[in-house]
Amino acid sequence: MTGVETKPAAARPEISAATWRLAWVVALGAFASGLDTSLINIALKTIQDEFDTSLRVAQWVSSGYLLALAVSLPGCAWLGRRVGVGRLWLGALAAFTVISALCAMAPTMEMLIGLRVLQGLIAGLLVPAGQTILGQAVGPGKLGRVMARLGVAVVLAPAIGPFLGGLMLHSLSWRWLFLINVPIGAVALALGLRWIPHEKGTATTPLDWAGFSYIGMGLPLVVLGMTDWGSDGSPKPLPVLLPLGLGVAGLVVFVLHATRRRHPLLDMSLYRSPGYSTASVAFIFNGALTFGCALVFPLYFQMLHGNGVVETGLQMLSMGAGTGIMLPLSGRLTDRYGGGPISVLGTGCAVVATTSFSVMGADPSPALVQALLFLLGMGTGMASTPLVISAFATVPRDRLPEATAQINILARLGGALGAALFAVVLARGLLGGTRHAFHVAFQWQCGTAFAALANTLFLWLTLHRSGDGGTPQGGPHH
């Protein structure tokens, strides 16, 4: 690595059993929220039939959750300081579990959508609070390995969700897709009460209500515009451009407000660090690729190959397996070599996989498809943890709540953008036939992967120039 020695594996700081327990408890809470999203997506048609409504109305069970999630994320840092991040995580998990049970008992579609919005507001606090707990508890040179455990839960839950949901819907009511969160949440809560720090909050400045209003308007409107854009192959311009324009305006006003306010809702000064800002941009592209692939490939198996829900879930397991294998390994590699080279390696694997899909024939070998999905899962899994660690590397410990909130906001925006983009590409491509639609979608995937690779290369160069290897404060540099 440019002639500079790295620390041998034996010299890296050891991670205590107590820290691993903490990581697994936080990961269990993240798994519950991630699993909930992927389970419900596969059940929308069933819920639509149950309440005898349109699919456009039923989609709000999912999109209402996403919009609420985007709204609550900015307030997580302030709440963490106010009540204590450990107490915030425990309270959010308890509320998420109770609301899951209420969703299962919802008598009307309106009640279900309202409960999902409330559940999204709570879920928006759960994952960033968990990341902050780990960031504050873990010492230098160890955060990559520990954060990878949380990443496994976050990424694997959507990967296994379609298969598990298909199995459950085959023999059970859709209501069990919500009830499954109750035992998971109860176990995580019992363990959390024992091992999660219960520190009290500290005196903090009043909540920046003006900033919260700007970003609380901007984020949902941007996501709503993207959702409407992706819901039809030829949408009317006004329902798309109006929320998008208002949303972007709200975000611009928020940034201007935050740069001028002494105690803003989110600290924009973090972006003065070249490593943090470039890692954030790379995180958007990686999120767009990950969520875009999660949209395209289930449809690829169902629409092009005629697979059922359960079989499609089985086909998607290879991508989840690749991600699950690489996430822990990428954390170890990041602790040793820094986030730059590992994120480049991950996005490089994604480029190889997506390029192969874009040039393959009409009837590829099933074994080849599974191998490429496994490689794609490896690539996205290998890239995600180093990007988070690279962003955290330049952030002081007391500013980790702001950093985790911002990283999660960027992930949601990147994911929404990727899902909306690929939905439009598919919908418009279907005018030329199903095979043509997926061929074009794979080409867009390839382009997104190349953009992600370009950004991670720039991140590596930025970290190298700044002397910040992308490892958390004091970790080994390359």
TrEMBL record:
Keywords (alphabetical) are:
Antibiotic resistance, Cell membrane, Membrane, Transmembrane, Transmembrane helix, Transport
Pfam families referenced in this protein's UniProt entry, alphabetically: MFS_1 (PF07690)
Any one GO biological process: response to antibiotic
Question: Mainly localized where?
Answer: membrane
Q: What is this protein called?
A: Drug resistance transporter, EmrB/QacA subfamily
Task: State its location(s).
Answer: Cell membrane
Question: According to Swiss-Prot or TrEMBL, what is its membrane topology?
Answer: Multi-pass membrane protein
Does Isomerase appear among the keywords? no
Q: Which family does it belong to?
A: Belongs to the major facilitator superfamily. EmrB family.
The molecular function terms of the Gene Ontology recorded here are:
transmembrane transporter activity
Q: Which residues form the Major facilitator superfamily (MFS) profile domain?
A: 22-464
Task: List the PANTHER family.
Answer: MAJOR FACILITATOR SUPERFAMILY MULTIDRUG TRANSPORTER MFSC (PTHR42718:SF9)
Where, by residue number, does the polypeptide cross the bilayer? 22-44, 64-81, 88-107, 113-134, 146-170, 176-195, 207-226, 238-258, 279-301, 313-330, 342-362, 368-395, 407-430, 442-463
Cellular component annotations (GO), alphabetically ordered: plasma membrane
Taxonomy, superkingdom = Bacteria
